[in-house]
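Notes from the 1:1 (GR / supervisor)

We went over the backlog. Supervisor wanted to see one worked example end to end before approving the batch request, so GR pasted a single chain during the call. The sequence is below; no edits were made to it. Supervisor asked that the structure be written out right there so they could see what the output format looks like.
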Amino acid sequence: MNIKKIVTISLIAALTALSLCGCTTFDNFKKAFIDKPQEQTATIQIGVFEPMSGADREAASHEVEGIELAHEMYPSVGGNAIELVYADNKSDIDAAETAIQTLISREPVFILGSYGNVYSLTASNYINEAKIPTIAITNSNPLVTRNYKYYTRVCYVDSNQGDLLAQYVLNDQKEKTAGVLVPKDDDAALALATSFTDRMRADTGNDDAITVYEDFEAGSQDFSKQLRKIQRAGVKHVIIAGDTLDAVNIINQAVEMNLDVQFLGTTDWGTEEFRDALAVTTTSDRIAFVQFFASDGEDATVTVSKEKETFLNAYKEKHGQDAEPKDAVALGYDAYCLALDVISKMPEGANSKDMIDLMTGPQYQFEGASGLINFSSIGDPIATAYISTWVGGTISTIYTIEPVE
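Structure output shown during the call:
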């Protein structure tokens, strides 16, 4: 798709005046293109491909909220108005196929979404054939980006979260051993456990860094056998791969046994449902999990960048000063802002391949509300991540992991 028709001469002049060495942050982009009054000469369409009805509507609404908040803050780029074009996949695979084809026929410059791995996988072939850069927001299935050049994402895949948790154990907790609990016959859980194990072994140079590795039957009610082995091994940190219900049962039984262990998990642990299912005697130092956004916390390295401050101020103005945005809201906000950042960098005559090549190139870096975001060559993020826990019913950040350049 040629975007020549939407990038005006005024934008080119502004880009020429802007320093082209390295990559600007969104703050610089905002000053150069959005804060500067310009006559709007064209409309740029950005597609929103989400389940806005059906079973996944509520979960997806957080992504949509972030996109729409960013659009309110930044409704134009380079003097061109941004129009959001919605495609409701209705939480249904068949509807998703129709919705993405209809959306593509509108020829948006970017597409954002979808919540739900299955809907993105349904759309991926169509998106790749149409060559429209697309940014998934909380979609964690590795297949979405692995085989599709034009699909990227702003969240880590689940297996990468194992690597992040290992970094926390090694670099913040200064531990050189750990344990693993993983359900049988669960490939996704195994991938998480494997990435954790690989990082522990690689960074310590010790093939025995995982001193206890136990599997269990998903849905089991008794984990005493596995927990006694953990107790005998003497490890202080154990990753629990698999379903959150199993994780809750394991943690609650460990609390009953007075086991001195911190259990580690994915972003799924950051829900109110997970928190409420924990035993009331579970202390904050007994759990740690990955998050993709943090406004504050115990960790002194959590910084409030200008874009994070802009996002938080806008969110709290809508929802109250005590309101805390979910990860998905911040990531939806960043996905929209990132799309604008890429558009702003395109010279006259650029096409969609130029945009995706910029995003996945080695020099691209974007700083948004959630932190720094770089992309791998296949479109997966190398981004700021946070290790958090529940403190008095509120998520609190205890460690920040910045992307490795």
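Supervisor's comment: The first helix runs from residue 9 to 17.
Batch request approved.
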